[in-house]
């Protein structure tokens, strides 16, 4: 079945600074928490790191040429905080100059830049002072946002404060599978709160610097599927929705915290670090909400070992992706369920009603085996099928009244996929990590046709 998107629907692609730029010690850039984490033995698969990544720092002009060939309406990328304001010292002019050149190339190609201020590369100097556990980091983030917006705001109008604060706080400070690799309870909850505070402060800073700016935040939200009617699995689903969604959506969209949070985490914190006015600051007017979606969440009750559950935030959920017989899974091990995407978008509408701003899908994509044929072709039909099905799911949510304005595929390029290293490939463009040669895949040509026609077969 062919579906048609409105003529003003925006099609884009997304990347992140640490995953593609490389040049980690050039032109005044200092280490981020991901430099430290990826160079810590045992943290990243095969000992990979982002030192070179896709070398986008030196090859951005060629990459923008690929975007022009693709016909993108918009390109979402992130700024490397330690490249622009690496510590409490002066602004790094060379770092800003790189993004000047990138933005100017995009505009010359007719592509709208959409800037993410924070996609996980916190300066290591700030982590050494406590990182997102500390209120001061939210304040430093607002200062960084003011610098970036003040410099680029004459050309950039779409700004995203944070990418996936769930990953930054829960995966980084509780589960330890992302930088900085901590295993904490209260520390992770503090990080989540200060990320929300930082979002609000940064939104204020961007609007002060860029009159008429479009400001939003990107959340990776769980489409929670209850696995049984047992009281234990019902509670597991409820907790999963809390830690994955509500501790981020409620502050941003409603200016509150869910009462369930105090009940669940009373054993590890008294929440005394939340100050009067914090939720008001987090609850800034949004021009849009960015939503990232890859797979449904199926939390199954389990009995975690003590004392680990007493001090960590997510492990007591039995946070699992329950297997279903015959189900297709991506190279990341994630189940594919496009209908759950529609469910997530309608859940947002039903939960927040008029408080919900227009939505952009800021990431959606798949890691799958890319077989390079003898003639160099990469016929990635699994990726085409995945993106097609999920675009249809978005259109289905729109037909139900959800206001979705655009879609960014993840990702333009194969890249450094965090703790998984370089093995999973998400790109429309293959990157040979030995030569750094770029080769468009079959999905590239397919997506170009989607953009040109606004139709998905």
Automatic annotation (TrEMBL):
Its EC number is 3.2.1.21. GO terms for biological process: cellulose catabolic process. Substrate binds at residues 19, 119, 163, 294, 410, 417-418. Keywords: Carbohydrate metabolism, Cellulose degradation, Glycosidase, Hydrolase, Polysaccharide degradation. It catalyses: Hydrolysis of terminal, non-reducing beta-D-glucosyl residues with release of beta-D-glucose. It comes from the Bacteria. This is Beta-glucosidase. InterPro entries: GH (IPR017853), GH_1_N_CS (IPR033132), Glyco_hydro_1 (IPR001360), Glyco_hydro_1_AS (IPR018120), Glyco_hydro_1_beta-glucosidase (IPR017736). It comes from Flexivirga oryzae. One of its GO terms (molecular function) is beta-glucosidase activity. The keyword Hydrolase applies.
């Amino acid at each position: 079945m062919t579906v048609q998107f409105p003529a003003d629907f925006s099609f884009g692609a997304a990347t992140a600074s640490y995953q593609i730029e490389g040049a980690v010690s050039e032109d005044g850039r200092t280490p981020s928490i991901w430099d430290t984490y990826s160079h810590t033995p045992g943290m990243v698969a095969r000992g990979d790191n982002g030192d070179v990544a896709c070398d986008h720092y030196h090859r951005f002009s060629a990459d923008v040429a690929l975007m022009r060939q693709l016909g993108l309406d918009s390109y979402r990328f992130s700024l490397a905080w330690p490249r622009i304001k690496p510590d409490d010292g002066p602004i790094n002019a060379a770092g800003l100059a790189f993004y000047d050149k990138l933005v100017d190339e995009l505009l010359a190609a007719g592509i709208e830049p959409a800037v993410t201020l924070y996609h996980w590369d916190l300066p290591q100097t700030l982590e050494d002072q406590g990182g997102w556990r500390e209120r001061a980091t939210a304040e430093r983030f607002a200062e960084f946002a003011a610098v970036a917006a003040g410099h680029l705001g004459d050309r950039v109008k779409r700004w995203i404060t944070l990418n996936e604060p769930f990953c930054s706080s829960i995966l980084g400070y509780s589960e330890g599978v992302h930088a900085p690799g901590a295993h904490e309870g209260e520390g992770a909850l503090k990080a989540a709160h200060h990320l929300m505070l930082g979002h609000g402060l940064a939104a204020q800073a961007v609007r002060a610097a860029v009159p008429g700016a479009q400001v939003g935040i990107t959340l990776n939200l769980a489409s929670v599927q209850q696995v049984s009617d047992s009281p234990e699995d019902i509670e597991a689903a409820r907790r999963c929705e809390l830690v994955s969604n509500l501790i981020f959506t409620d502050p941003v969209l409603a200016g509150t915290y869910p009462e369930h949070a105090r009940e669940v985490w009373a054993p590890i914190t008294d929440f005394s670090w939340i100050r009067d006015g914090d939720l008001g600051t987090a609850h800034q007017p949004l021009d849009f909400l960015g939503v990232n979606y890859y797979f449904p969440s199926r939390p199954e009750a389990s009995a975690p070992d003590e004392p680990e559950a007493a001090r960590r935030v997510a492990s007591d959920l039995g946070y699992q992706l329950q297997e279903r017989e015959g189900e297709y899974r991506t190279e990341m091990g994630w189940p594919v369920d496009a209908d759950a995407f529609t469910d997530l978008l309608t859940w947002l509408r039903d939960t927040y009603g008029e408080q919900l701003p227009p939505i952009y899908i800021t990431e959606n994509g798949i890691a799958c085996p890319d077989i390079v044929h003898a003639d160099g072709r990469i016929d990635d039909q699994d990726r085409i099928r995945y993106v097609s099905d999920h675009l249809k799911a978005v259109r289905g949510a729109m037909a139900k009244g959800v206001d979705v304005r655009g879609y960014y595929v993840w990702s333009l390029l194969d890249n450094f996929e965090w703790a998984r290293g370089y093995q999973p490939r998400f790109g429309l463009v293959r990157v040979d990590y030995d030569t750094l040669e770029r080769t468009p895949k079959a999905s590239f040509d397919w997506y170009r046709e989607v953009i040109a026609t606004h139709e998905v077969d």
